[in-house]
């Protein structure tokens, strides 16, 4: 073995050792980061569960808060119903627009699509309280506080999230599927409906459900739109409505232990509802993927 060959071999061995050390170090850093993140999450969830279970019971899900916030008992039934109604309105408004916009961005494009994508990116970064103030100025001032106003505000928050998630899922669909459909003489619109959307349905459903979960926990925009109503259960979205997030906020900032106990129970209820939405999204996405395979 020549001197040059030996030097080259030593250099190669040194590079391999350095790469292994770097890989081990980065793996250790990422593992520690993941462990710290999971530990914080478990700590938060465990603390909320420990405090919420002290008050959570069947009556909490079926009763409204007492007239006196210092009085123990009662529940957030009106907030649970209000959350479902307002988020339902927001979902009905945002899903058709969001999916249609994402389809236009990916399948058609153009200058208008690029400008609209830029506006979508800006909307993602807008604080939710600003969205609430906007709806307050254009809706509440003229029509008053209502569940509809809250639903519109949440729809604007959900819209960019749905657009971005659906857009990314559509981009993952292989172009070969589109080309095969178009080669058979199928129109582009029919190709999108019959080929592209079913193929990306699992990811689309997951993205939509995550947006719904995000809207379920919003408070700031609802303070300026739905305002809340702790006196009774309101089923008319044209009136002021309570949500779980509003009731948690209102009870948590009081100095009464009974109200704060209800806030902890409400927080646990909200976490469980968000968890159910997330699990539902996973289940529907899995079923969609299985049905496509068969």
Automatic annotation (TrEMBL):
The keyword Acyltransferase does not apply. PROSITE patterns: ABC_TM1. Keywords: Cell membrane, Membrane, Phosphate transport, Plasmid, Transmembrane, Transmembrane helix, Transport. It is a multi-pass membrane protein. GO terms for molecular function: phosphate transmembrane transporter activity. Pfam families: BPD_transp_1. InterPro entries: MetI-like, MetI-like_sf, Phosphate_PstA, Phosphate_transprt_permease. Signal peptide: none annotated. CDD domains: TM_PBP2 (cd06261). It is found in: Cell membrane. The chain crosses the membrane at residues 21-50, 80-106, 118-139, 145-163, 192-213, 263-285. Residues 80-281 form the ABC transmembrane type-1 domain. Belongs to the binding-protein-dependent transport system permease family. CysTW subfamily. This is Phosphate transport system permease protein PstA. The gene is pstA.
């Amino acid at each position: 073995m020549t001197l040059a060959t030996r030097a080259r071999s030593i250099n190669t061995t040194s590079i391999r050792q350095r790469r292994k050390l770097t890989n081990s170090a980065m793996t250790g850093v990422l593992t520690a980061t993941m462990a710290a993140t999971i530990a914080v999450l478990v700590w938060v969830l465990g603390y909320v569960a420990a405090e919420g279970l002290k008050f959570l019971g069947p009556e909490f899900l079926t009763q409204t808060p007492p007239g006196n916030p210092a009085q123990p008992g009662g529940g957030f039934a009106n907030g649970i119903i209000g959350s479902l109604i307002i988020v339902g309105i927001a979902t009905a408004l945002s899903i058709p627009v969001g999916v249609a916009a994402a389809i236009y961005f990916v399948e058609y494009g153009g200058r208008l699509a690029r400008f609209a994508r830029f506006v979508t990116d800006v909307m993602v970064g807008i604080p939710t309280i600003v969205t609430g103030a906007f709806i307050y100025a254009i809706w509440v001032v003229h029509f008053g506080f209502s569940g509809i106003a809250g639903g519109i505000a949440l729809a604007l928050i959900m819209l960019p999230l749905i657009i971005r998630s659906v857009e990314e899922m559509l981009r993952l669909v292989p172009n070969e599927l589109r080309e095969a459909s178009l080669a058979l003489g199928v129109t582009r619109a029919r190709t999108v409906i019959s080929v592209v959307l079913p193929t990306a349905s699992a990811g689309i459903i997951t993205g939509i459900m995550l947006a719904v979960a995000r809207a379920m926990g919003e408070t700031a925009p609802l303070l300026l739109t739905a305002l809340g109503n702790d006196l009774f259960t309101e089923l008319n979205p044209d009136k002021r409505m309570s949500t779980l997030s509003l009731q948690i906020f209102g009870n948590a900032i009081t100095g009464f232990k009974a109200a704060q106990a209800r806030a902890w129970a409400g927080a646990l209820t909200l976490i469980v509802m968000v968890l159910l939405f997330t699990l539902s999204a996973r289940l529907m996405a899995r079923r969609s993927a299985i049905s496509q395979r068969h």
